[in-house]
Amino acid sequence: MCTCITYKNGDFYFGRNMDLEYSFGECVVITPRSFPLHFRHNRYLPQHYAMIGMAAGSEAFPLYAEAVNEKGLCMAGLNFPGNAYYRKAAVGKRNLATYELIPWLLGTCASTAEAAEQLRDIMITGEAFSESMPPAQLHWMLADREGSIVVESVREGIKIYENPFGVLTNNPSFEYHRTNLNNYLNVTAGYPESGFCPTELFPVEGASYYPRLEPYSQGMGGIGLPGDFSSASRFVKAAFVKWNSVCAQNEEENVSQCFHILDSVAMPRGAVITQDGKYDLTTYSCCANADTGVYYFKTYGNSQINAVDMRKAELDGNALTEYPLETGQKIRALN
């Protein structure tokens, strides 16, 4: 359960909510250009683009959930259970395990166009990183300031979709989400006008027995906008809030606005109970400025926005840099 968005207002931003019932040992990780990336079936990359994102702690390989590289290409993996289908390594293909896909594409591609071209020859395989870490069932969203694509490895093969919405959630497939948005043509952020009945059928002004239909509250243009936490509903609401988002064109307000968009579809503990009786919640939210390489994040327990600047690290180095998350709430006392 996750939601991913893009946001462009001067600079270009890429954000996501990680919705899980557990922590996966995540921390902010910077992979410098000279950190050797070893792949199961491909040549290893001694040199590649630097990247920053949230990853499971591993000194051997950055297990990114999402990341952005120094060229402004962004990528995130989102849960896609039951639909994701992986194959065995094949001769003549660039074979990549699910956990290798983000480091490979962000390490070798400067744009979504380059990534889409590479994906034509990629076979996504189902090898596990370790016995305790089986392959996750995922689909992926890639984006830069020029556009976005969705990648789904299903039984029919790898499908690549143009994503003009700049939004992705979970099941069903992206094709469904794209079609489902048509069910909300009537929703508006503006002050609504009645379309329930032709105006010529209303009685003359002053008739008391048949009142005109008029809004009685602000926000009634959004009636029909879903508010539950299903992936289809989160897709619709995130797209609506993003498309109608307005803020000043500066870093502080852009970052704040990205988090407000993500907050509109975030999960509080207790609102979603899994089949195992556990609670799905938004363990962290992040927003990366793809133009500057600054990665912002907050956690469920600490709503303060934290920042890590990739370009302040030694990007020509050969070792991963990790920043642990602060999960305890910080409250500023004013008296």
TrEMBL record:
Pathway terms, separated by semicolons: Lipid metabolism; bile acid biosynthesis
Pfam families: CBAH (PF02275)
Highest taxon of the lineage: Bacteria
GO biological process, one term: lipid metabolic process
MF terms (GO), sorted A to Z: choloylglycine hydrolase activity
Keyword set, alphabetical order: Hydrolase, Lipid metabolism
Choloylglycine hydrolase/NAAA C-terminal domain segment(s): 2-320
Catalytic activity annotation: cholate + taurine = taurocholate + H2O; taurodeoxycholate + H2O = deoxycholate + taurine
InterPro entries: CBAH, CBAH/NAAA_C, Ntn_hydrolases_N, Peptidase_C59
Similarity comment: Belongs to the peptidase C59 family.
NCBIfam families (UniProt xref): bile_salt_hydro (NF038245)
Annotated protein name in UniProt: choloylglycine hydrolase
Organism: Candidatus Mediterraneibacter stercorigallinarum
Gene that this polypeptide is encoded by: bsh
